[in-house]
Each structure stands twice: as structure tokens, then as C-alpha cells.
Amino acid sequence: MTVVRLLGPPRLDGAAPPRGRKPWALLALLLCSTGPVPRSRVIDLLFPDAADPQAALRWTLSQARRALGDAVRLGGDPLTCTVADGVRVDVLDVLAGRAPVGWPVAEATLPLLEGAEPDVPEFAAWLHGRRLDLAAAGTRLQRAHRARTFSPAGRGAVRDLVRVGEQVMDAGAPRDGTAILAGAVRRARALGDDAVLAEALAHYGRGYVHAVASTDRGAAAALREADRIATREGLADVAALARRELGFVATATGDQQGALAQLTRAEAAAAGRPEQEAGVAYGRGFALVDTLASGGAVRELDRAVALTETGDRPRATAAALAMRGRARLQRDEDEQAEADVARARTMVAELDWTAMRPWVEFLHGELLLRAGRTAEAETVFADARTLAEVLGDACWVALTGRGLASARARLGDPAGAAAALRSTCDTLVADADVCCWIELHVRDTLCAVTASFDEPAAVAECRVLAERADRVGLGEFAVRAARHRARLGDRDAVREQRARAGRFDNPALLRS
Q1: What residues does 7 pair with on adjacent strands?
Q2: Superkingdom of the source (predicted)?
Q3: What letter would DSSP give residue 33?
Q4: Which pLDDT tens digit goes with each residue over 420-436?
Q5: Residue 383: inside a domain, yes or no?
Q6: Global confidence as pTM
Q7: Do 305 and 236 lie in a common domain?
Q8: pLDDT tens-digit profile of 365-411?
Q9: What does each C-alpha distance from 457 to 34, 309, 439, 450, 464 come to in angstroms?
Q10: How many CB atoms are closer than 10 A to CB 241?
Q11: Same domain, 167 and 120
Q12: Cα separation of 471 and 467, whole Å?
């Protein structure tokens, strides 16, 4: 059996190491990301100062391939990493919470690439974040390994743990809830029942990516394992759930094509099951917002609302209404968005759904801003920001912070608001796996706020927004960047806005 070791000093059992440190860094980057990584992102992290970064990347790939042979295949654009059958990788075991095979569990908390870090500041920032994540995951794995003596649980007990974990999460304690779900996964593994294990993995993965970190690598690994088991065992409901949540993760990381591919797979498994079909429609609607087909996003979310209402699933209805409200805000359909958000807020309050409150309150604050009720909006955003911080939800913290900065800019402090927005952007892009649509929303607001007091800085921010929007396939934000520049008097930007906007199913983008 071949074992790839990246925790501690990197090494490949039974093979000569690659030349240099960057092949190891490239392998670690691909293995620790939730999905394919654009070559441009790899260049940003590993070769920012290279005279010919494409050539440097090709050389590094060739060195990694020579050392890894058939054990791990690297390639494509975006770059993917495929581990061959029978090959074990320590970081993948840690992220998935699997018992180590071929390496000691005592090494689960060793630093990633210890002593083999390339001297590149951009990669160092990424590596620091990965080491923190892996150390936490390694500690959980070691505790689970020590706890193998827990009393055995039956199928019913494991499913009860899943239900309780989800209830705790909805009540506003996401990390406590996911800890219970992680315990359900451990007990399901000990039980040896693949059907129960697939269910526990799918619910753990869903809970973690929605309530704790939408780009968490361990949660994504759990979803992929759930999909594999469910597909093998013919568990259509579980396969549909895992695939649509993998679509959600792909959307969050800016892989729209990957998201739609996963949702097509989920749709095949969901056929004839309205509850699962509603989830697929929601996922597709989420994936299509900010793309060429934002009208299609609204239609998918119309379907999700209808299916959840028919199935009497109020939580799913509230989530679909809120997402449809967001899609309609992007299209400047404020009246319809207001109706959706009002219904979603009412339902979230009736359900006492604490974890959902920052999101629906953020949307409510956006509508207040558009109505010119800035002071009220500031209060709503401030309260929502506080709750998001208590919940520890980075996505909601960033969005509510965006709203708060926008309100404060209108109330007379654009420079302070811009500084807060820029700090949020720096936080979001310190990780290779970011919630791309949230980052772009923040940058869009940063462009608008900066334009009110520093035109050169605003133009520079617009170019960053357009470049990042094109990179991740959320082209609406590139149109918005051109519109910001057009409002500053750039005639070329006026033509660019019109040319770009003509490709989109969103009339709001044509407005000056």
C-alpha cells in the first residue's frame, strides 16, 4: 500500500521525493481544497513573482507527477487531484475523520509541510489557515480514536443523534450541533451499517457547510463519502442530499460549472421525490444567481417554494423565499423581493430558527436601504451582525458587515466604511476556499463607497472586482464593476457595461 505523508515533513513511502518544496506545496494545496483549483489561483499563491509563472507551474507539475507516479494524478484547468485506489493520504484521512491506515494517529496533529514550506508570503498565509484547520481536525480524530470503547449504538440511536444534532444547530449552537453529528458518524462507523453511515455523513456534511463553514474540506469529504456509499447501496434519497450539498459547496467556492454538474446528478437521484426535488431546485437557483441566467434562478426558486409549500416543509420554504428575495434584489425587483423577505422573516420568527435570522435580517436591511430608511437599516444590520458573531458564522458576519458599512457610508462616514469593507475583503481572500459570491458582494459595495471620496482608488477596486468576477464565473459583478467606472465618467466603461450586460438575463444591469 502506498501512503502519502504531508503532516510533518512530507514524504512518499517507497519513492524518491520531488525536487524542491513547491511540488509538495502544490500537492497540499490541491488535496486540502474542496474542489478544483484554478491555475491562476495556484500562480497567485506559489509563483507571484515568477518571470514566467505558467512555465514555473508546468515545471512544478512535472516534478510532482514524476515523484507521485500513478498514486496521485494531477492535471486539468482548473487543476484537479485524483488519488488512486489503495493509496492513503494522511491529510485526507484527517479531514474525513477516518482511522489512519499506514501512518500513526499520533501524527494527526503535526504541522502540514513541516520544514518544507516554500518562502512565498502568499502561500504562507494560506498554509497558516490550513494548519489551524488540520490541527483541529487531527485533535478530533485522536479523540475519536481514544473513544473507540464507547458503548455500541443501534440504528435508531444513531438516527436520534442526527435529529438532535440538527435541532441544536437550528437553535443557534452550530458547533455543538455539528459535534453531535460528528459523534453520530463515529458511532455509525462502529455499527458497520453502510446505510446509517451514509445518512450520518450526509447530514453532518450538510450541517457543517451551512452553519459553520461552507468551504470546509472535512465536511466536503464527508459528503463525497456519503455519495459513494449511497450510490453503491442504492440509497437515492441520501445520494440526492449529498450531491446537492456538494453543489452548494461548489457554488460557494466559485465553481459554478461543478455546482451545476453535481445538481444534475442530484436531480437524477431525486426523481419522483418532491422533497429532494425541492432541494435540487433551491441549489440550482442559488448557483444561477449572479450568472448569465439570473432569471432562471428565480424560476428555479419559484419551483422550490411551490414544492416545499406542497410538502408542508416550512423551514425549506423560508430558505427558498429568502434566496428568491436575494435573486430579486439582484434584478432590482424590489417589490417582489420585499414580499419574499417579509414572508421569510415571519416564518423564521415563528419557527424560532435562530441560525437563519442573520441572513433574513440582512435582506431586510438591504430593502430598508433601498427605501431610503438608512438609520433603521443601520440598526437592523448592527443587530444582525451581533447575532452572526455570536453564532460564529463567517458568511453572515461578512454580509451583515457589508450592510452596516453601506449604511454608515450614507450616514456620513464613507472613508471609515471603506476601511471596514477592505478589511473584510482581506479576511475573505486569505483562504483559497472562500465564499466567492459574498466576497464579490462586499467588493461591489467597496467600489460604490470608495467612488464617493477617492476616484483613483475606486477605479482600482473596480478592476479587482471585474477580474475576480470573471475568474469565478459570476459575470454580473464584472458588469457592475464597469457600471461603477461609467458613473465616474469613463466612456469606455459605458460601452463595456452595455456589451457585457447584453449577455445577461437581468435588465437591472443595463441601468446607468
Answers
A1: 112
A2: Bacteria
A3: S
A4: 998 888 776 655 445 78
A5: no
A6: 0.72
A7: no
A8: 999 999 999 999 999 999 999 998 888 788 888 899 999 999 999 99
A9: 33, 47, 18, 7, 11
A10: 28
A11: no
A12: 6
